[in-house]
Amino acid sequence: xxDSVDVLIIGxxxxxxxxxxxxxxxxWSVAIVEKDxxxxxxxxxxxxxxxxxxxxxxxxxxxxxxQLAGPEVRRVAVFAEDDAVVADMPGLGGxxxxxxxxxxxxxxxxxxxxxxxxxxxSIWQPWSVIALRHDRGRFECDLVCRTGAxxxxxxxxxxxxxxxxxxxxxxxxxxxRQAARASDLFGFKTHFSNADLPDDLMxxxxxxxxxxxxxxxxxxxxxxxxxIRRDVLMRCRRQFGGNAGEAVRRYISSLCSPVRHVLQDxxxxxAWQSTGPIRxxxxxxxxxxxxxxxxxxxGEAHPVVAEGIGMAMHSGWLVADTxxxxxxxxxxxxxxxxxxASASYRRRWRQSFVPRxxxxxxxxxxxxxxxxxxxxxxxxxxxxxxxxQAARTTGKVTPIxxxxx
Length: 405
Description:
Elements: E1 4-10, H1 14-25, E2 30-33, E3 47-48, H2 53-58, H3 62-68, E4 75-80, E5 83-88, E6 101-102, H4 105-118, E7 122-124, E8 127-135, E9 138-145, E10 151-161, E11 185-193, E12 201-207, E13 210-216, E14 222-229, H5 230-240, H6 244-255, H7 257-262, E15 267-268, E16 273-278, E17 281-282, E18 291-293, E19 299-300, H8 308-324, H9 335-367, H10 370-382, H11 385-393
Parallel strand pairs: 1-2, 1-10, 2-7, 4-12, 10-18
Antiparallel strand pairs: 3-6, 4-5, 8-9, 9-10, 11-14, 11-15, 11-16, 12-13, 13-14, 17-19
Helix pairs in contact: 1-4, 1-8, 5-6, 8-9
């Protein structure tokens, strides 16, 4: 593995692996540093909307995705209290396979990272970047192996931060630790088998103090994921006791009869996972000077719209496309080129994702408040096309990538 590369990528999840795969394919020397050993499960809704299909084809992974993923999602729904309002999911126009599907992160992440390695990227796993310095036009990145005491330093011209946004740290790209707030959102996720959910349906679950979703994923399972406010989580743990994930499930089931019906005979497949606090927002302009943020490190939509994986992969594509169009960046003789590349990436990122983040915020605030959901449901039953349009607005059929390389 080379100790000097063109680009060092911190994080081997969907955003980092996508960027690394495309840059390595274009002839750039790439090192991807991933702290976890794969395969690994993550708190994630696991759904990839139809807007990601062109990118999967560009990555040469569409066949593998179709072979492994769950069934096509052709309908969307809202589950709230005793109501279930169902509507058509928009499809990707002109594409016979133009429907989203779900795939567990233990499979998706491993496929993306192994294909980045096949294209020539060096994979440092499980290693962590513990320090990042900029000196005379290059970055010095200190790494430590998580299975021993080994340390290394890698020099790179550019850095892509794809390490997510949930864990605070010492790097300039990581968030600072913040004081706890009652409104903090915590994410939970698990799988169930033998659940009574139609194969083609992906419901949004609205409940007091949180929201969630269910979808059929790989292996004949459904994925149940949700976000819940800190204060509500504390109350439901006091009420139901035991494991936090199970307390959350019982809380949601007590409030929402369609969820209770889906899980009535279901068997949990694997442990509950949790993470947080989740802080949706825009961070793409926080760091400059040759550091590019992708995925949740750049900005995060409320998970209510199930666009997290797609936004991560598309931001990885955006940064790769931005850099590949500027091969002069590798010369190191024109720092203004880096500034121009950073400005171009930030502009394209905002054009692509700010509308989704705004729409997700509106939907999340609606879903967490029964006083807003109840009067809306009769209108949605009368005009289910409003649900279809909401799915369209959040990016379900809006591809970002183009065949530029």
